[in-house]
Amino acid sequence: MTTIKEVAKRAGVSVGTASNVLSGTVPVSPARRESVLAAIRDLGYHPSDVARSLKLRRTNMLGLVVSDITNPFFAQLVRGAEEAALAQGYLLLTFNTDDRVEREKHVLGVLRGRRVDGVLLVVAPIRGESSHIAETIARGTPVVCLDRVPRGVSVDSVTVDNARAARECVEHLLDMRHRRIGILTGSMLLATAQERMRGYRRALQAHGLSVDPALVKEGNFRMESGYELASELLRSPNRPTALFVSNGLMAIGALRAVADLGLRCPEDVALATFDDLPLSEVLSPPLTSVAQPAYQMGYEGARILFDRIKSKRMDGPVRVRLQAQLKIRQSSAFARSEVTERQRPEGQASSVPMPSIEPD
Questions:
Q1: Which residue range is the domain that position 118 belongs to?
Q2: How many angstroms separate the first and last alpha carbons of the chain?
Q3: In this structure, are 200 and 341 located in the same domain?
Q4: Which sign, positive or negative, has the C-alpha torsion 169, 175, 179, 180?
Q5: Is there a contact between 190 and 254 (Cβ–Cβ < 8 Å)?
Q6: Rounded to the nearest 5 degrees, what angle is found at the Cα of 67, between the Cα atoms of 121 and 158?
Q7: Does residue 51 register a pLDDT over 80?
Q8: Is 42 left (phi over 0), alpha (psi -120 to 50) or beta?
Q9: How many domains does the chain divide into?
Q10: pLDDT per residue over 268-303, tens digit each?
Q11: Which one, of 93, 157, 151, 163, lies nearest residue 127 by Cα?
């Protein structure tokens, strides 16, 4: 294996000069630089990334930990983070926790051991404090949380205004004359589920309605959970006329439950969901969805992480909150009693920007 000493000897320069050409940290004359580069080409020299990382005290690697890699939302988030990482010459190591906090703790330990320069993290549901995240930061590895913010930890984050977006989506169903609106939530240990529930509740309150506990079902953001909870709600004697589902995978499960029960969407039950999945427009019917800027979330999170890595900033947490967009499609028609009075127009989905709503 060719060494830097052999490169220096071939180029007729000192080892220090050859190293300076490779690192780019110290100016080298054009003639000497060209001699070193020619020697590298002739000898097929490849510098050791391990040795370079020890010298520079950087590995040029980031860790990205997501809760469910099969969820299309997180796939878009990964793409955004990877694009930002590659632009900075970094590699992205991606891990999946399946929403298991013990697995999350293990992965963070592995990433610290690999000396990654920073971590992007989508936290798993947990009761109590997230001390393992605080410990990672205290040991010198910056962390940016994406989509979900853990309790009790001062950490940089990029999230969506979940409460506002959920409120707008439920208000759309209310505008369609629905008054019995069920909600399928994810784990209420997660801030995202809590905020979407808050938006649901405040939309009802704004229309003089109270939350009926019988219409609230807590799941786990998985497709099977959406199927089971929707089936339970739709089998009830006084079933809801509409469902607000807190994420896209649960919405797919809910739509399957509607079909399996011999019901029709939207004629028998309307449906609107958080998350605009890639298939939302081609499903039957196309789903009314809250579109989250997943790609932007990943990209912005990586940008904040690079700022921490390069500047060694130690100030308070950076918290970025992005806005979502409601896309109205055919799954959220008027309540059945209203159909004879007003017909919902057909056609392409309309994008409705979030209106000015007082902060929750």
A1: 61-160+294-322
A2: 63
A3: yes
A4: negative
A5: no
A6: 40
A7: no
A8: alpha
A9: 3
A10: 999 999 999 988 888 889 999 999 999 999 999 999
A11: 151
* Residues 39 and 90 both lie in one domain: no
Quickly list H helices, the chain.
4-11, 15-23, 30-43, 49-56, 72-87, 101-113, 131-138, 162-175, 191-206, 223-234, 248-260, 294-311
pLDDT digits (tens, 9 = 90+) for 161-196: 999 999 999 999 999 999 999 999 999 999 999 999
* One domain, residues 317 and 264: no
Same domain, 232 and 270: yes
Whose CA is closest to 255, among 184, 195, 197, 196? 184
Residues 146 and 276 in one domain: no
**Residue 53 falls inside a structural domain:** no
Asked whether residue 142 is domain-assigned, the answer is: yes
Q: Is 195 helix (H, G, I), strand (E, B) or coil?
A: helix
The residue count for the chain: 360
CATH number for the domain harbouring residue 77: 3.40.50.2300
**Is the separation of the CB atoms in 290 and 304 below 8 Å?**
no
One domain, residues 208 and 144: no
Residue 245 domain flag: yes
Residue 59, SS3 per DSSP: coil
Contacts of 190 (CB under 8 A, 6+ apart): 123, 125, 148
Distance in angstroms (rounded) separating the CA atoms of residues 147 and 211: 26
Cβ-contact 240, 332 below 8 angstroms: no
Q: Considering the domain boundaries, does residue 344 fall inside one?
A: yes
